[in-house]
Amino acid sequence: MEGHGVTMFEIPIEDFIFVVCALIGGGLLLITVLVDDILGAVFDFDVGGVSLMPLLLSFISMFGVGGLFATQVLDVHGGEAALWGTGFGVVGLGIAYGLFSVLRRAEAREPFSTSDLVGHDAYVQVGIPAGRYGSVLVKAEGQTHEFSATATTDVVAGTVVKVTGVAGAGLIVESAPPAGGPASSSGGTGVA
Questions:
Q1: Share of the chain above pLDDT 90, in %
Q2: Going from the N-terminus, what domains does the chain have, and what CATH number goes with each?
Q3: Other CB atoms closer than 10 Å to residue 30's CB: what's the count?
Q4: In angstroms, rounded to a whole number, what is the distance separating the alpha carbons of residues 121 and 161?
């Protein structure tokens, strides 16, 4: 009789490596996708507009899946299983690159900033005392936006002014010079 006692469940080292790659790579990829690429700060560069971190994690996780497929389904081991894992990893990396490229192109463009409004006409909604703040309406991006505004001279409500600069989140305006008549010479960029 042998006095071996309890036998331990043995996992081949290659299966252990493939499982760890699949679980950790897949788990970190999921976390990266859900929390908007926190891990991307580690590798702060991209490949063709796609962050490097999701690509690396997809390769690692699919390497593990491919290796497990090779050892468990195809019954191949060692270097051959690693080649299968590498093939799966490359395919996974390609799929991730394609998906993240599509998602990147589908993102909305950056919204306009207040500095983009310099040169636009604005309608004074609340009078602007010299050196103080009032409010103006500016048409941009197909909508009318309200901003606080300041001017060096008094500007009465109901007049059209020209945006000449930015002051914090507000605008700096000045009275629009009359160009041969009422303030309608702006070519439709003013706010009515």
A1: 39
A2: 13-106 (no CATH), 114-175 (2.40.50.140)
A3: 12
A4: 6
Which run of H or E residues covers position 148? strand 143-150
Q: What residues contact 161, with CB distance under 8 A and at least 6 apart?
A: 121, 122, 123, 124, 136, 149, 151, 155, 173, 174, 175, 176
DSSP β-bridge partners for residue 175: 161
Which distant-in-sequence residues (6+ apart) come within 8 Å of 178 by Cβ?
A: none
Q: What backbone torsions phi and psi does residue 125 show, to the nearest 5 degrees?
A: -90, -45
Q: Alpha helices, DSSP H only, in the chain? A: 13-34, 52-72, 79-106
Candidates 178, 124, 126, 133; CA nearest to 151 is 133
Say what the pTM is: 0.51
32-53 confidence digits (pLDDT tens): 777 755 555 555 566 777 777 7
Q: How far apart are CA 21 and CA 67, in angstroms?
A: 9
**Residue 187, pLDDT above cutoff 80:** no
**Residue at 57: amino acid letter:** L
Q: What is the mean pLDDT of residues 91-117?
A: 81
- List of long-range contacts for 3-12, beta carbons under 8 Å, 24+ apart: 12/71, 12/77
What is the distance between the alpha carbons of residues 19 and 47, in angstroms, rounded to a whole number?
27
